[in-house]
Amino acid sequence: MSEVQRRKYTQEERTAIFDGEFMPHIDSMYNFAFRLTFDEDDAKDLVQDTYMKAFRFINSFEQGTNAKAWLFRILKNSFINEYRKKSKQPAKVDYQEVETFYNSDDVDYQSTTDLRAESVKDMLGDEISNALNALAVDFRTVIILADLEGFTYEEMAKILDIPIGTVRSRLHRARNLLKDKLKGYAQSMGYNTDEEEE
Amino acid sequence: MEINNQSSGERKLQCNDVTRCFQLLESILDGDLGENGKEVLKEKLDKCQPCFEHFHLEQAIREVLKTKCTKQPVPTELADSIRQMIQESK
């Protein structure tokens, strides 16, 4: 994602790129925005802003490169710069503080967890979603990008502006935290939830 | 994936290098090693119980995240309002 200005697209090309390469990702974009903000209106504004910026800076998008990653990067930056400040959900972790903590890429890999693959498979969508939503935004983000949206380490590094090693270690930490939450669920119930689906 | 069919009795119960192994397994699951990972993976899963368990747990977590997370329906008017804003900005 270089900032180098390529030749300018014509009006027709811009419309074609916008409709053909940008708009098809609106579903993923909205869901990403919602998982960051937990608010429908904020998510809508964030997606709208992102698309406006994408259109304005369309000349810095290189055709043939990954439009989805390009859009996600704009959305994530908009979120950090604008929404995080006014978001109803206060950021649980200070970004700077988290970064210094992350930047040691040494991570403890231990086989201590007594969570079983089988009990994970039995969990309900709501339990999985709740566990994910309970993570601090930076951890939540890497899991969304990797597991829900299928981005590679390399794409994630570009979206988040961090080295690949940091992507790997942050993702590992995020999944460990998620495992802790899921372990809590697994212990607290025998999978007979009485809650009614609305 | 046919990795469930070995008896666990043949696997060692202690992993000698948990950090390296688990990191490797996670990279494989995340698709970061491509085809290179396949052989290493088979070796690990056949011979090491902690690796075997870690792999299956990590795989299950990725799978449920991918398939079970509740999706938010996109507001119907969002796409139109974006197009309109673009139109007005031209």
From TrEMBL, chain A:
It comes from Algoriphagus lacus. This is Sigma-70 family RNA polymerase sigma factor. Belongs to the sigma-70 factor family. ECF subfamily. Keywords: Sigma factor, Transcription, Transcription regulation. Coiled coil: none annotated. Residues 25-88 form the RNA polymerase sigma-70 region domain. InterPro entries: RNA_pol_sigma-70-like, RNA_pol_sigma-70_dom, RNA_pol_sigma70_r2, RNA_pol_sigma70_r4_t2, RNA_pol_sigma_r2, RNA_pol_sigma_r3/r4-like, WH-like_DNA-bd_sf. One of its GO terms (biological process) is DNA-templated transcription initiation. GO terms for molecular function: DNA binding; sigma factor activity. Residues 127-176 form the RNA polymerase sigma factor 70 region 4 type domain. Pfam families: Sigma70_r2 (PF04542), Sigma70_r4_2 (PF08281). It comes from the Bacteria.
UniProtKB/TrEMBL annotation, chain B:
It comes from the Bacteria. This is Mycothiol system anti-sigma-R factor.
